[in-house]
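Reminder: ligand-aware prediction takes two inputs, not one.
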Amino acid sequence: MNIATHTHWLPLTLALAALMVPGETARSADSHAVTLVIHGGAGTILREQMTPERDAAIRAALTQALNAGYKVLQDGGTSMDAVEAAVCVLEDSPLFNAGRGSVFTSEGKNEMDAAVMDGASRKAGAVASVQGIKNPVRAARKVMDQTSHVMLVGDGAVNFAREQGLQFEDSAYFFTQERWDELKRTQEKEKEIQKEYGSMAFPHTHLGTVGAVALDKHGNLAAATSTGGLTNKRWGRVGDSPLIGAGTYADNATCAVSCTGRGEVFIRSAAAHEVSALMRYQQLSVEKAAQRVVHEELVKLGGEGTGGLIALDRRGRFAMECNTPGMYRGYIAADGKAHTFLYRDE
Ligand code: ASP
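Here is what comes back for the chain with aspartic acid:
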């Protein structure tokens, strides 16, 4: 087993649930111990480059997000409400590449993408290339709940969010010096690569998308993902995060998944759906399916260092897998305690 995989078995009270076959939908209420798993992005996260203060701040933010989502689950709320609550906390933190801490496009703007999916109904909602919306995950949820569509983009999505009364912020709210410096560094690096190789390479080391997957007491799964995308992106580039089946997926019959990494590779491998498909058609466990996608399928298309994902099944078993040196991540389950991890070998 890869050391980046964390598997959690529910307590014995759930042994009965463990006997159920994938695809089974009839459950009695209250039969599930609730579980929440989150990520705050994968990438070149190295101990030697981390200060103790930053390490502590990231763990504190992850813990806050876990506690916010877990409270919803403990109070009997739905997995959808839990993933939304957890992702909102991460979007409000400048430490992650989503909402407030979103990276800059080549034009110095913040264009954000987000998606949600409900495992019981397989209803989904997404927004892409939106500006100014404080919590894009809330806009994605509104698309799912208030329209007959799955994805809205650009100005149309922004107008819809306004109509729905969502909170907006000006560009100063989304400005972080760190992300700005990252844009300048990336643009310099890109120039060097172009001079040397004459190609349009996309230098990209630090990712930072956020996501959550949850299991509620009714046995329903949900997934949410939110991102600022890639630093220096242009031409209205959209990554995997808001694309159902690529960066986000949930199906009660298999699992809920949220991905982070070089979006193009996740899109081309339909990564989130691939985890679900391996469980459905090959009866792989959630950990085995996640390992296969992260260490084989993604690697085939993009090499090591492309990213990672979190995935959770209806028994409360989950995987947090990455092929990068690190992935901000954490879970909270039966013991009610938030567990956080930054480096791959943790
Ligand atoms: N997957 C995101 C994208 O390609 C980036 C990330 O995870 O950091 O837009």
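The CA atoms of residues 27 and 219 lie 7 Å apart. The mean pLDDT is 89. We will return to this case in the review session.
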